[in-house]
Amino acid sequence: MQRSLVVAGTVVGLAFAFGVLTLMLAGPSTDRMAAPTIDEPELYRLDGYESGVFPYINHRTEFEAFSSLNVIVRGTTEDVLLALTEQSDTEWAITPPNMTDAAPDTFSAHEVNLTGTEIAWGQTRGADRFAYVHDGDVGEWVGETEQLHYGTFYGERLHLRLFESPHEDEPWVAIQAHTEHMDWFTLRHAVDGNEEAQHAVEADFMGQPWVESVHREYLGNEGNADTDGWATIVELLLIVPVATVGSAWMTRAWNRIDPAHRRRLKHARERITLDHVLLAATIAAFVFGVRAGAILLELHAPFLHIYAIGAIGYPLLVLGMPLATYGIAHQMKSRMEAGVVASCALGASMILDYAALGVSVLPLDIVLHRVGLVLALGLVAAGAALRATRERHLNGLVVAGTALWIGLVVMALTRIV
Q1: Engineering a disulfide at 345: which of 32, 75, 134, 280 sits with its beta carbon 3.0 to 4.6 angstroms away?
Q2: pLDDT per residue over 207-233, tens digit each?
């Protein structure tokens, strides 16, 4: 009994230290990191126009290099919507209010003075993203005129935020285009980058008979995500309505392995039981099943509110997966094998999930958070194994894994990571 308490205390201490190390190394989450403040903001203006726009959008009404504008279209919002939703090869859809990244927010209309310039803050609706636009005489912070997306809310999607000119005689639309995916552990959309979405918008406009030109101009707003500071400028005209290859490669790779290594691999393969396969498949089923199920419900169950789908999938992931892991791992004899299978299955499933979404780069805090979840699930599985329970290590390993899992889930929900 005393030995079990020592093991439990040691593992819990290591788990706590890992959490502290995650915070120390990762710092604040990337979507909340303080953006550089711009002392003397410069506006971008299309040739011949007096109106302009600050080349970043922000989550608050301050001049910060938060999120780079990367597409400017000379034309009205109606022109852009018609071009993208009706004339484009990409199936762009207008994003309804319940599919934005944040709850609707309203700012009371008031005025402030900034370096002698009168700025009107009008009422805005939608997600908390604002652009500073100027009509040549006065500037104001405004919310999105419209939002478009291609993809699914619970999978990967391209997301466009449109901000229109305040000068009715000088029509233009500034667009912030980015790719994003649903992070099920934070229940928020994680922005992956801007370049892929910018290229997609470019491709939709290029070669169209109602487009005069598509080119790039340097706005100097690099340093945000993968933005290089070059924005796409669109000038609109009138808009009128392999299995065999894989098998051979595997055969050649197997023949190159040293015979002694092949024997060890064969021995390891013979040790694999149905419980090993079932544990790995169950964990993968939770990761991919929640993602795919949410997408299917989103597409084919319009009677369900978008957040009701999240309320169904999230408990399955954060509660169902560790409970199922414990139940299956309890049938396994080796705690080492149970822990390794569970950790590898979750880690591999996360990697494949990101690959399917097209995500290739992740912030350090997210990487450390996911590593912690992999470790936590492995501890739960190891503590559930028959040998561990016979040796009274159940409390130490399972409690440590559960504590680490709960802590990391809470950290994600409270935006510590």
Answers
A1: 280
A2: 888 898 999 999 988 876 788 899 999
